[in-house]
Automatic annotation (TrEMBL), chains A, B:
UniProt DNA-binding residue ranges: 130-228
Keyword flag DNA-binding: yes
GO BP: any one term: regulation of DNA-templated transcription
Known role: This protein is a positive regulator for the phosphate regulon. Transcription of this operon is positively regulated by PhoB and PhoR when phosphate is limited.
Domain of life: Bacteria
Main localization, broad class: cytoplasm
InterPro entries in alphabetical order: CheY-like_superfamily, OmpR/PhoB-type_DNA-bd, Sig_transdc_resp-reg_PhoB, Sig_transdc_resp-reg_receiver, WalR-like, WH-like_DNA-bd_sf
Localization: Cytoplasm
Every OmpR/PhoB-type domain range: 130-228
Natural source organism: Gilvimarinus xylanilyticus
Protein name (record): Phosphate regulon transcriptional regulatory protein PhoB
Amino acid sequence: MTSRTILIVDDESAIRDMLRIALEMAEYRCLEASNAQDAHGLIIDEKPDLILLDWMMPGTSGIELARRLKRDEVTANIPIIMLTAKGEEDNKIQGLEVGADDYITKPFSPRELVARLKAVLRRADPQSSSQPIKVQGLCLDPASHRVTINEREVDMGPTEFRLLQFFLTHQERAYTRSQLLDHVWGGNVYVEERTVDVHIRRLRKALTVDQHENLVQTVRGTGYRFSTKAG
Amino acid sequence: MTSRTILIVDDESAIRDMLRIALEMAEYRCLEASNAQDAHGLIIDEKPDLILLDWMMPGTSGIELARRLKRDEVTANIPIIMLTAKGEEDNKIQGLEVGADDYITKPFSPRELVARLKAVLRRADPQSSSQPIKVQGLCLDPASHRVTINEREVDMGPTEFRLLQFFLTHQERAYTRSQLLDHVWGGNVYVEERTVDVHIRRLRKALTVDQHENLVQTVRGTGYRFSTKAG
DNA sequence: ATAAATTGTTGCATATTTATGACAGTTCGG
DNA sequence: CCGAACTGTCATAAATATGCAACAATTTAT
């Protein structure tokens, strides 16, 4: 995968479709929500890398959702791009105040959208894609593509590497096999869910250095979780 | 490649095209950005050798970008040439204050541009391109264009030399074949990705003196990496 | 306690990815 | 114009990774 996940929040399905197509063309993984409630749920579950948020929506408005997200520490760092209709530009100020990272007025070209989006993503986490992630002696360095435990090199296959990378960036939360397939294997791949078990096994085996295999925990009836707290 | 990478930052695509043509004629590799945001991303990703920066741009202005770059240690040493329109010359002082290495007023001749650019590049890194790089007995001297291992001369072809030079200046980091083609062969060259394998092989063969071929490591599923740490 | 679910392990055939050797076209200096 | 040095491609071999199915072990529900 390696590709980022974008959440599209808009009440008009036509617009969502349009956005989805544009983003999928650009190799992004898409999630959709037609209202603020669903959106919030998806955000908690999937921790998207960026949110495309429609300004005007029935029920909780986009701005309200944005405000809520920015208030919560967990979601505060997810960049938001506001979608506003022409003429609503006054809202620009309000939107940026709330914490939107950019805003774009409809109608817009897919190219422009993707360009802005890339810019925001880059600005948002200049490091996350290349900064090593460490936890309890375990260190994964995306740049050199290496994993070490207490300075000792650990060997694993490409899939296990991606799996670990995903876990490290999404700790302390359980994922179903299906979700893991989506995130680590990539959207449209047909693989048995049980295959995840096998790779989890392989990852654990690779991490078997100073008990580090305990970081990958089984959540019975659900799937797996990466956690530093005892399972 | 040997050729340097120049980043062109200007909001007018016509000007970008003009600059690109001039620079490509002079054998430089070009990157383009139409705004400060994209530019910043490219700078982080590609570490260009020099930046041609338009003074006036919508959004974050050129001067603002320059200021930001000079503030960050990682990008502070990348030379910047400011492009200013005639009449804006007052900005010259301001630009140089911010840390621009030169400035040039539109309109200008391609010849003049290239001349200035060469001058700045020469001034900018008098050593980095000619200082020998040593690592574990392996030594590459750009000046004499020689490679030695423990004082013994090592023989290799031009491409292998550039490849090694690139690796030595970008150690401990995995590169895809595509990235290597971009950096070592140069931007718009159509060559099979597999060709990289062959040159890696040739480079390794050349380095087969006291295990030094282990410095060039395979990163399965990704590409290659130069590292002094065991693979 | 027993059956049903769910997860852990392992071996293996298959699919992918790399390494290598050979070859033909080019370039460059005599 | 010739020969040596380089390059890029291929075909083939070798190395690894992957997915799956079968069976064991564990947990949960009845």
